[in-house]
Write a structure and sequence with these properties.
By secondary structure, this protein is mainly beta. Helix content is about 10%, strand content about 25%. The protein has a domain of about 120 residues. It has two helices and eight strands; from the N terminus they run ββββββββαα.
């Protein structure tokens, strides 16, 4: 974490990736004009502070909500911990909090984030409606990013592509 008022750089670590956790991404939080405006969030490389494009952020901050509804589980299937018998869980919604297009910087689509309230799609959803409810508090925003971002990361994938080199024609044709 690095602090240079009014900006705060926070590196997010994916602790469940084995064999070693990784620094998945960083978030530059700009608290300029805070309280009149919500904090601004920019996803960055945690080492260089270079802004990340949407395609380079390793998470979409997927929020899933399950709701307990009356129902019967199949025979032999135990309910999840904390769910009483005679109740099943049903997917209520599946939401990606990180929005954007591949080459553009992403923005977090959540009340309490400056980019959310500045977006033309949310002109009727004023920051002043959420300001006193803690929506733009630093701890809440970092908790949401951690919970739906790095805590959900369990593995790392590598993609390799081999490109053959040029074909040489100066090899001897007969054994020496």
């Amino acid at each position: 974490m690095q602090y240079d008022f009014p900006q705060l750089l926070v590196a997010f670590i994916a602790p469940k990736i084995k064999p070693h956790p990784i620094a998945a991404f960083g978030v530059l939080v700009d608290m300029s004009n805070y309280d009149v405006e919500p904090p601004s969030l920019q996803f960055v490389n945690p080492f260089t502070r270079e802004p990340l494009a949407f395609k380079d952020v390793p998470t979409r901050l997927v929020r899933v909500r399950l709701e307990n509804v009356p129902g019967q589980l199949p025979p032999g299937v135990a309910p999840p911990p904390g769910v009483p018998n005679g109740v099943i869980q049903q997917l209520q919604y599946h939401d990606e909090l990180l929005q954007g297009s591949d080459e553009e910087p992403p923005f977090m689509c959540l009340q309490g984030v400056r980019e959310y309230h500045a977006n033309p799609a949310h002109t009727g959803d004023s920051w002043w409606l959420y300001r006193s409810k803690g929506a733009g508090s630093l701890l809440r925003l970092l908790d949401v990013i951690s919970r739906f971002g790095t805590e959900a990361m369990r593995e790392q994938q590598f993609h390799m592509q081999f490109v053959p080199g040029p074909i040489r024609s100066d090899y001897p044709t007969e054994p020496a």
